[in-house]
Amino acid sequence: THQPLMPTRAGWTAAVAGACFIVAGRVVGLIELFGMGAAALAALAVSLISVRRPLGRLSVARTVEPSEVECGDAARATVTVTNHSRFRTPWLRLWEPVGRDAGAPMRMAPLRTGAHGDATYRIPTDRRGVIELGPLRVERTDHFGLVTSGSFIGESHETLVFPRRCTIPFPRLESLGPIGQQLRLRSFATSGNEFHSQREYVPGDDVRTMDWNVPARTGKPFVRLHREVPVELTVTVTREE
Predict the structure, then answer these.
(1) Is the pTM of this model over 0.85?
(2) For labelling, which of 64, 140, 176, 200 has a CA lying 20 to 30 Å from the CA of 18?
């Protein structure tokens, strides 16, 4: 998206001062004042002509490192601008919107045909959520800083900032025996009983482990065998900000 030529604050000052000098020179009759006003307006006209020249075809690529960011970690974005036109680019001022209320100002030296330049800035990761980067605004100005022209190139990029993860030590029960094992498994919110196999019932087996569906088919009692599989659950704790 190309934006029209706009005088800067210095450009508006030069235009107003030039008009005032010309009027004062005509009223007072001083050729010096008239010359100063004409020079200011002439500089503004030259600036308009120089900035009016097309900037050329530029492309932008953006890289975020690391790709996954946790809240509070350092993250950087690298913007690569490539010149595809036949002319050398002037000095460029780059502005990368970062989120809703921030931005990264950068400057880029002239690029010859086919060359590219990189600019890097830090991404704020103090709050979790989605941070939208771009699109990149490219501004050019004249040598006097009187006129500026800008355009947006490339697309935007979204970076996801995850909540910070930390390891919380879970208490372990060191007691041995069936009671200690059962308490340890319950502390991890799981019984740890996994079906393993079946065998015929022998006197002394726990009646609660009998599989009552098998005698209905075979006429012989069978019991179900289980094995204990300790499973440690992963718990993620987040803090609301």
Answers:
(1) no
(2) 140
